[in-house]
Every structure is written in structure tokens, then in C-alpha cells.
Amino acid sequence: MYKKISIIGAGSWGTALAVLLAGHRGEILLWGHNPKVVEELISQRTNSAYLPGVRLPPNVYATGNLGETTGADLVLFVTPSKAIREVALGLATHKPKEGLVVVSCTKGIEHDSGKLMDAVLSECLPGSRTAVLSGPNHAVEIAQHIPAAGVIGSRHADLLEPLQQTFSLPSFRAYTSDDVIGIQLGGALKNVFAIAAGVSDGFNMGDNAKAALVTRSLAEMMRLGVALGGRRETFFGLSGVGDLMVTCFSRHSRNREVGDRLGRGESPADIQASMKMVAEGIPTTLGAWQCAERHGIEAPITRQIHAVLYNNKPPHEAMWELLGRPPKAEADSQSG
After folding, report:
1. Closest CA to 253 of 323, 199, 305
2. Which mean pLDDT values do the consecutive 10-residue runs of the chain (336 residues) have?
3. Which terminus of the chain is more exposed, N or C, with fewer CB under 10 A?
4. What is d(CA 75, CA 84) in angstroms, rounded to the nearest whole number?
5. Enclosing H/E stretch for 27
6. pTM for the full predicted model
């Protein structure tokens, strides 16, 4: 197991991971870019802005100096997807040691390039060895040690067991996989579909409609995910259907909340301006739509959410267009 861990990103998820991994009694260093947040973490041992009601364990330390994180055996990236490249390039200037193990805990697709988070990290930190963590893991429940499970993926087979041991704790069960692409796509795409599920909530469309929408979302996730290099079976696992369910239905889901507010008539700009934390489904929708267009993949839900978020399409028009698509056999509809 890794006894000295740095966590880059002091938002809700980064703070929750620090609280979780502190259970191994090793040293945890939590880096944040916001001086006020870092000062509170140091002086009060709390993060009221992102994870109120949770206190840091004694073996968790905070810093605003990115260079201090390079002394760890393991580095977790927990920044928003739109910031991960900038922060990784910043870390590279501090010359981290060769072979440093870096785990992406961020769910997203980079705009324009279509790259997943592990690819961005590998490009910015060429001497590192990367892995990913995903699954149905809401930060507030993880920090409260409510039971959960996740999946760790890496192309480096020798990393899987030590990472699994590091993340295996009484309240967290860690599984492993070598399908790094599928794991990341499941974790990223489910945020897009959670926005769609939230729109159905905002319209009070009921449980039947929402269940149908989430089921079709899984079919679209698999169609797009397999086309981009993931394995079909991965999307039936924790980072696919598991994360999809919790994000579409949970009261903790920021992406579902975005959709709910869209359905109730708020504009995307007003919703984003009012949110303290990033709803990853908003930037991921753009990246996912670009990938679908580039590869010619039929992705009707993604296309409609993209039109609502980026082209000012009224949500009710998007929803009725989805409902008005030509009927087909369910088996046939898995491919379009």
C-alpha cells in the first residue's frame, strides 16, 4: 500500500477521499488552489465551502503549494476536468519523480481533443504511471463512511493490487479492471444522462418515463463507449450502470439538479452562475457530443442535451423530440 498520498483538488470529492484514505493511518496531503479553503483546512480542519460538517482526521494535512505534493508515493488528481491539464502542467514544472503513480479521480472528456483524463495526465506528466478510479461514489456519503464500492483501472497490471489494497477500507470495496477507457467513459457519460433525467424530474414526467429514459441512456452509453474503445461488459459494472443509477436518481447529484432546474425553466447560464461546485455533465456534454459527431455515432440524448446547454434549445422541445423518434425493435435500437 501507499503510505504517503497527495490529493490534488480540495473540493468535496478530494476532501472526501482524504477522509476515506486517512483510515490507513498514512500521511495524506490535500492541495487546494483557493487560499481561503486551504486556510480553513489548516486552521479549522474543516471545508465548509465544499463538504460541511466533516472534520479532517489528524493525519490529513493541507497545502496551497503544488510543489509539496511531489514528495508522495501516490498522487490523486481530483480537479474539475476543465482544469486538469493546467494543474498537471503546473505539477510537471516541479519535476515529480520518475514512475510516480498518478490516479485520475476526475470524470470527464476534454473538449476538442476528445481525450480522457488519464490520457491528459500521461501527456502532461510523461514520466508517470497512470490509473483511474470511478464508480457510484457521492462525496458526502464517502466522507461519512457509508458503505460504497468503486473500480480502479490501469494499463499497468502491477499497479492494480497495491491500489486495490490502498482503497480497500471497512466502508469502501475496491474492484479492479484493465478497461481504462470503458471505466472513464462510463463515469463521464453518466453525467450527461443525469442532466436528462433531471429534466424529466423538472417536468414531473413520472417514474415510468424516467426509468425508460435511464434505460435508453445506458444503451447510448454502451453504443458510444464501445465505439470509443471501451468493452461492453464494463458498462454493466460500477462505472457504468452503477454510476448511472446513482447520478440519475440521487438527491446528492449536482448534474441531476442541473437538469431539474432546466426543466423548471432556469437558463443554463443562471444555473452555472449559482452553483458553488462544478457540475461535470455540462462540460462533458460538449466533449461527448464532439466525439459522437467525429465518429458518426447515433447519440440522440447527448445531442439534445448539447442543444439545450449550448444552442439555447428549449428543454421541452428536446424532450418531445426524443419521445417522437421513430419506433423500432428494442434489440435493433441498441445500435441507434
Report:
1. 199
2. 93 98 95 98 97 97 97 96 97 95 97 96 97 97 98 98 96 98 98 98 95 96 97 98 97 96 96 92 97 96 98 95 84 60
3. C
4. 13
5. strand 27-31
6. 0.95
3-class DSSP assignment, residue 314: coil
Distance CA 68, CA 29 (A): 8
What domains are defined for the chain?
A: 4-178 (3.40.50.720), 188-333 (1.10.1040.10)
Among candidate residues 82, 190, 210, 313, the one labeled active-site is 190
* Residue 169 DSSP code: B
Q: Grid coordinates standing for 18?
A: 482524504
Helix (H, G, I), strand (E, B) or coil at 307: helix
Q: Are 68 and 5 in contact (CB under 8 A)?
A: no
Q: How far apart are CA 56 and CA 18, in angstroms?
A: 8
The answer to whether residue 3 is catalytic is: no
Tell me what pLDDT residue 255 has. 97
Q: What is the pLDDT of residue 328?
A: 79
pLDDT of amino acid 67: 96
